[in-house]
Amino acid sequence: MSIAIGYVPGAFGQGGGDPGFLRELVEVGDRYGYDSIWLSDRIVSDRFSLEPMIALSMVAAYSDRMKFGTSVLAMPLRNPVVLAKQIATLDYLSQGRFFPAVGLGQEEPEEYEACGVSKEDRGRRTDEAIRLMRRLWEEENVTHEGMFYSCHNVSITPKPFLEPSTPVWIGGRSAAAARRVGRVGDGWLVSSATPEEVGEGREIMFSTAAEYGREIEDDHVGVLLGYYVASSSEEAEAKAEQYVTRARPGAHFTEYSALGSTEQICQAISRYVDAGAQKFVVRPLCPADETMEQLEIMGTEILPQFVR
Asked: In a structure prediction context, what are the per-residue pLDDT tens digits for the chain, which is 308 residues long?
C-alpha cells in the first residue's frame, strides 16, 4: 500500500506579513520528505489568502521534487478554457507534479455574485467544465456547445505532461460529491469527514465509476486532515478548536481531526487508512507562529511511520 502525506499551511495561508513565507513552507516540505504542498482557494475574503494558481507557479520553481495542488479550487468561478490552459502550463513546466483538486466553492453567496456566477448552477457548471477541460487536454480541435460554455474549433498548447490528461481530483464530503468523482473525476479529496464517511463515500465513488464505464485508481482516495500534536488529546483539542475553519453539522471536530500525542496522531491516520484512504493532506490547527513547528513534528515523528 502506497501512503502519501502532503500538507496545507491553513485554510487562508499563513505569514501574510512576509512574502518569503511560501518559500519557507516549501523548504520544510523538502527537508522532511513530504509528498506535496496544497493551497486553498478563496477569491473574496477579508483574511489573507494567496491566489493558488499564481502561488503554485512559485512552488514549482522553489522545489523540483514536491508535488503540489489546490485544495480545492472553486471550479464554478473560473472559465474552463482559461483554467485548462493554466493547468496544462503548470503541469508541463513542472513535468507532471501538479494535481488540481476542484470543488463547488464556498457556501457564502458573495463570492458567486462577485464573480458573476449563479450559485444554484454550480454543480452542473462544474461537471460541464471538467468534461470540457479534459477534451481540451486530450484533443487537437474542440467544438463544444453546452449549457454554460461554448467554443468552436479551438485547441490549447502545450498539452499536459501527464497523458492523456492531468488527473482532476474532486473535493466535497457529500454523497453527491463522491458520485461526481465517479462520473467525471480521477480522485477524491475529502475534508471534515470521519473514517466511516470516507469508507462510505469510497464505495459510492467506485460504484458510480463502474456505472459510467470508468476506472479510477484504487489509491486515489485522499483526506484533508486537521491535526495538532500535544502531550494529550485534551490539550490538543483546547488549542485546535479555535483554528477549525468551519464547524460542520452532525459531528464534532474531534471526530474528523487528529489530536494529541504522536502515537494518537498515528492511530487517527491509521483509522483512515483502514477506511480506504491512501493520500493525506494534513493541516496544522494552530496559530501562524506554530505552523513550522507542527510541520516539523509531523515530518520527523509521524511521516516515517507511514511513508517508506
From this structure: 689 999 998 644 555 667 888 999 999 999 999 999 999 998 988 878 899 999 999 999 999 999 999 999 999 999 999 999 999 999 999 999 999 999 999 888 999 999 999 999 999 999 999 999 999 999 999 999 999 999 999 999 999 999 989 999 999 999 999 999 999 999 999 999 999 999 999 999 999 999 999 999 999 999 999 999 999 999 999 999 989 877 788 899 999 999 999 999 999 999 999 999 999 999 999 988 899 999 999 999 999 999 87
Residue 203: all three cell numbers together:
464505495
| DSSP secondary structure letters along the chain | ---EEEE---TT-S-TT-TTHHHHHHHHHHHHT-SEEEE---SS-SS----HHHHHHHHHHH-SS-EEEEEEEEGGGS-HHHHHHHHHHHHHHTTS-EEEEEE---S-HHHHHHTT--GGGHHHHHHHHHHHHHHHHH-SSEEEE-SS-EEEEE--SSPPSSSS----EEE-SSHHHHHHHHHH-SEEEEES--HHHHHHHHHHHHHHHHHTT----TT-EEEEEEEEE-SSHHHHHHHHGGG-S---TTS-GGGGEEEESHHHHHHHHHHHHHTT--EEEEEE-S-GGGHHHHHHHIIIIIHHHH--
Domain 4-306 in CATH 3.20.20.30? The answer is yes
What is the CA angle 83-119-189, rounded to 5?
Answer: 55
Domain boundary assignment for the chain: 4-306
Beta-carbon count within 10 A of 117 CB: 18
CA atoms within 13 A on the CB side of 287: 3
* 8 Å CB contact between 210 and 257: no
pTM score: 0.94
Q: Which residue has the cell 477524491?
A: 188
